[in-house]
Every structure is written in structure tokens, then in C-alpha cells.
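PROTOCOL LOG
Step 1. Enter all chains and additional molecules of the complex.
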Amino acid sequence: GQSLEQPSEVTAVEGAIVQINCTYQTSGFYGLSWYQQHDGGAPTFLSYNGLDGLEETGRFSSFLSRSDSYGYLLLQELQMKDSASYFCALLWASKIIFGSGTRLSIRP
Amino acid sequence: GAVVSQHPSRVICKSGTSVKIECRSLDFQATTMFWYRQFPKQSLMLMATSNEGSKATYEQGVEKDKFLINHASLTLSTLTVTSAHPEDSSFYICSATQTGGSNQPQHFGDGTRLSIL
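Step 2. Run joint prediction.
Step 3. Record the structure below.
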């Protein structure tokens, strides 16, 4: 199947660094994306890995290893506004399949 | 750029009513649009892929006659929930991909919260 697994919840301290992992059991996809979703809102695009390795966009970085069927999103200098749900998603030729989602809670 | 507008943002109606949701790409052409459904505290589940000028492709378990999709132009796709019932209450989100390659990022609408009484 095309399932993507993420931890359901992660808690971190403001100013710290947190890593959200995503594992999958499939192949033949174009790349791995990450989306942020605040309560009641729509997902917003954060990052995309078409190739293995690290992609950095400001405080957010994303990593993909196809050989390990694994990726992660790294958030640095955490701010309270980063409290949200984060989804990894595999991009196929004609669709995107979302992971189970990780609820990130930031405490002062 | 790459704005997707979804309307309405919220619908509350009686059981048995049909509800139409519109998804528009405002500043780009979208050959393909996607419709998702999200229940509280769950992930986005792809319902169907809407293709301009052709029939939509539905995911397994999604009733074609229940969720009617029309993609009549390169900037508009509609989802009609026919004879809606309380179990259809959910957050429906559309997304669109710019024409020009399957590795283009998806742009999401703001979603429609559907509540069936």
C-alpha cells in the first residue's frame, strides 16, 4: 500500500529544535513534501525533496533517503506559532498521498 | 501567485440536501484538481482527481454517484455532495496543480466545512 507513518504527537520547547519523522513503504514516487496545517485551516506547503538529501528553507529543513524509505522535517528556533499539525506527503504522477500527521505542541 | 479559491467556506444544511462546492484557480491554469476530505484530528484523504474535460478519477471506496465532480474549465472544478447525510459532515479541501508537469507543488484552497443536521 501507499502508507506513510508519522508520530502522532510531538512536544517541544520554544527556541528548541524538533525533528518530525516520516517512514513509508512504497516506491516509484516523484518526491516527498511537507505541509503545515493550523486548526481549522488548509494545508500550506513547506518543503519538497525530489532528490535524496537535505533541503533548507529558512528555519525549516527537510530530508529524504529513498534507500531507507525515510524522511524528516526539521524545525529550528521554534516559535509558538509553529504549533500545528505537520503532514508528510508522497507525490505521484497524478496525486499526493498524505501521511497520518504529527501534532506539534510548543510550550514556553 | 498560485492562489486557489474555494467557496463556500462553511455550509450548514439539512439532511437530504445536495451541496455544491467550487474550487477555482485564480491566477493559473489547472489541468488537474484534487478533492480531499478530512475528519477531525485525521489526515487528508484523497477522494478524487478532477481532470479538465474528462471524467474524474475516484479513489477506492468513494462513491461516484454520491460525490459528483465536474471540471468544465481550466480554472474551475466543482464537487457536489448529493443527498447529504450527517456522516458526510467533514472538512472538504481542494487543491490544484499548475499545468506543466506532475512535479509541480499543489496549492490548496481554504477548505469548506460541511455540517449536515
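Step 4. Note key features.
The mean pLDDT of chain A is 92.
DSSP finds no helices and eleven strands in chain A.
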